[in-house]
Structures are given as C-alpha cells and as structure tokens.
C-alpha cells in the first residue's frame, strides 16, 4: 500500500513538471512572434493598384450579319421545261454565263411563224404603198376622185401598221427564244439552284441565285449620339464569330442620313475585301469596331471601382495607410474602362478590392504587392 502511494505521488510530480515546461516553452514562443497593435488589428484589408497614365483608343462597337456585296435572284422570263443544266452550286460565273436552258422547240417555231407573217405583210405594205403613189399621180392629173386617193392612203397606213406590229411580234419571239437560256446577270458564285432537268418553270418563279462575295458588306445601327463621329472611309476592325482567331480589315462606305423609325439608329455599312482565307460567307455574324478617337497618356480606371452617388462619382485611394474618398470627373467609357478627367493623379493608390467595405478616413491595410 505504501509502495503504491509512492508511485502515484511520483507520477503526479512528473505530470506537473511536464505541464510547467510546456507552458513555459509556449510563452517564450509567443513572446518571439510579432504582435499586431489594436489599431493594426482593426484595419480593413484592401487591394490597390497604382494609377498610371496610358494611351487608349476609342471605338464604336456593334454587330451585324454579313451580306454579299451583290446578290441576284434569278427568275425565267418565259415558261418551259428545263432541258440542260450548265452550272452547279458553287461554280464561279461571269456576266452572261449560262446556268440552264429550257426546251426551245416551240419558241423556235414561234420565231419562224412571226418571221413568215412579217414577210407576208411586207408584201402587202409594198403593194399598198405603190398603189397610193400611183393614185396620188392620177389625182393630180384629175383622173380619179379624192375619195379614191383617201382610200388608197388609208390602205397604205393600215398595211404599214400591220407590218410594224408583225415586226414587234418577231422581236418578242426572238427575245423569248433568247431568254430560254437563263444566264448569270452578275459576276459571282452560284449560291442556289432550285430546279433540275425536267422541271417546269414559269415567269417570276425563283429558280436560282448568284452572289458576289469578292467583297462583303455589314450593316450596323449607330445611335444619334455617335453618328457624327463616323465618316466614309474610316477604318474598321472586324471579328467574325465563325473564325474567333481571325481579324479582318474593313472600311465605312455608307453613312445613313436618316434614323430608322423602329430602332432609332442610323444605318452604317462597312465593306470587307474578302480576298484571303478563311473567306467569310453571307449569313455569318460579324462584330465591327470603328476607331473614332484616341487619348494620349489618359488616366483610365475600371468602371466597377467607381461609386455613384446621385450625379457624382467617387473612388477610394489610400494615403498614409488611410482611406480617402475622392470625387472624380469622368469622360468616355471604352470597353468598361472609364477615362478620368479630374480627381486622380499619376501614382495614386486606387482601391480596387474592398472599396465597398470601407469609409472615409479609416485605417486600411494593403494585402497585395505593388509592382
């Protein structure tokens, strides 16, 4: 029993000694660590960036659909059945190149019929003309009455009218025969062909379309506030959704003088020389940017760091570890970047993160490293 008591006392003494040593070591370590003052512990954490002037370009951005420079929808002038196909979709065509031909057998017969009628009426007119000339001489000699002369004159005029009408009919028949071959009205590419051999077509029915995409156009709408900053010949950088890694160069070639009553925007058209790969195609979505100005050594900040109070704009800067609320005067907004005309200077430490949790004259601590 006595031995057991000694063991318990020894164990207790060992535990007390261990606890004392551990507490002494922790105290020494804590004394070695730097301690924040109450003021430092209460300081708000923010991130800042140094305000540095830089050059910036100003653009008007919009989007639109690419259209062919020229597009011709083709309809036949005469009815008929398609006999021959000369061009397939995708073929390059020149003005006058044949696309397809209708069966022209009946049209040829109509030309022959019209020509025969002209020949017949030429004979009739020649006869009546000679008869009128003869009766004019006889009337002058007093051989025939004036009534006979008038009848001869009327016959000559009637035969001349019939001949003129027959000649016009012959021209129409020849035109119809010529129009039985449907040709391209422009230089371009056959974009559509809606018929095949054996198809019966009628006038005004769309049968094909030809597009000229040697260059293309984009139509955009520009607000009344910005339209006066755009002129013919201005350069435009154009990106196309189908080719996100490419950029195309274009120019403004048309500036509208009247706003749309629906969109209240002015139409502006941009042309692109479509002469390099990958070639853009009608129907693709394009996003042109037209440069309208440049600013040298401007102070530019992100729009998101601005605090708006009524009509006034403010930002926070850090001076000597204290937050300062600064009123600024802003200019143009370019791609969510705002030009600051007054209120900030080069070298100011602009609060970019944490500005919405601080107030004027409170202590702040910068947690990011400045370059």
Textual characterization of the structure:
The structure is a single chain. The chain has 371 residues and is an alpha+beta fold. Among the domains are: 46-56 and 296-366, Beta Barrel (conserved putative lor/sdh protein from methanococcus maripaludis s2 fold), CATH 2.40.420; 64-69 and 212-294, Efflux pump adaptor protein, beta barrel domain (Elongation Factor Tu (Ef-tu), domain 3, Beta Barrel); 104-179, Orthogonal Bundle (Helix Hairpins). 28% of the residues lie in helices and 40% in strands. The chain is built from 4 helices and 20 strands. It has helices at residues 2-32, 38-42, 105-140, 146-178, and strands at 44-50, 54-61, 64-74, 80-85, 92-93, 98-102, 181-183, 188-193, 200-201, 208-222, 235-240, 243-255, 266-273, 285-302, 307-309, 312-319, 322-334, 337-342, 349-353, 364-366. Helix 3 runs antiparallel to helix 4. The radius of gyration is 46 Å and the shape is elongated. The two termini are 75 Å apart. Residues 26-36 have low confidence and may be disordered.
Strands, helices and their partners?
Layout: H1 2-32, H2 38-42, E1 44-50, E2 54-61, E3 64-74, E4 80-85, E5 92-93, E6 98-102, H3 105-140, H4 146-178, E7 181-183, E8 188-193, E9 200-201, E10 208-222, E11 235-240, E12 243-255, E13 266-273, E14 285-302, E15 307-309, E16 312-319, E17 322-334, E18 337-342, E19 349-353, E20 364-366
Parallel strand pairs: 1-20
Antiparallel strand pairs: 1-19, 2-14, 3-10, 3-14, 4-6, 4-9, 5-8, 6-7, 8-10, 10-13, 11-12, 11-14, 12-13, 14-18, 15-16, 16-17, 16-19, 17-18
